[in-house]
């Protein structure tokens, strides 16, 4: 399969469409566990993935990733859902210097005020003051299953207040195009609703009027 290139404005396009529209347009099992949420209101990410896995309570993989991650990437970090403060202000500053544009992690983070002040987008399972050791690195840059969605280097990650999705690189351009088409169709529908049409009529569900 030939992978179509992403449009140059893919970040702006993904932000305008949002994760819900893109998820529906993808027709793929690309939604991440809904427990992974933004740590500050308004956080948004649309970037190629750089996947890595940490051992429970160990963030060595994150430090190794800072020397390997391509600029413009988002870190997608598996921890086995272990709650600890894998990430804080020091790694945020290091990430910004390395050109990292955000973090998605199924574990915990800390130094929330600092990340909010710096406007560094982070989506995490929770917040934890507990520190971590640096003794093992299961994988850095290798694909794995993250919160119910497969992630590999270069996949398109989009995260906003509705949730996190991971679109395979080969399907990203198609999904964005179908997302635009879906958004245009919904815009017409919403105009028709303001003019008096009903959702039952517009979605061809009128037969249910007599059944309910």
UniProtKB/TrEMBL annotation:
GO BP term (any one): methylation
UniProt cofactor(s): Mg(2+)
Residues reported to bind Mg(2+): 111
Methyltransferase among keywords: yes
GO MF term (any one): lyase activity
Residues given in the record as substrate binding sites: 88-91, 110
Keywords from the named record: Lyase, Magnesium, Metal-binding, Methyltransferase, Transferase
Protein origin, superkingdom: Bacteria
Pfam families: RraA-like
CDD domains with a match to the protein in the record: RraA_family
PANTHER family hit by this protein: 4-HYDROXY-4-METHYL-2-OXOGLUTARATE ALDOLASE 3-RELATED, BLR3842 PROTEIN
Protein name: Dimethylmenaquinone methyltransferase
Species of provenance: Pseudomonas fluorescens
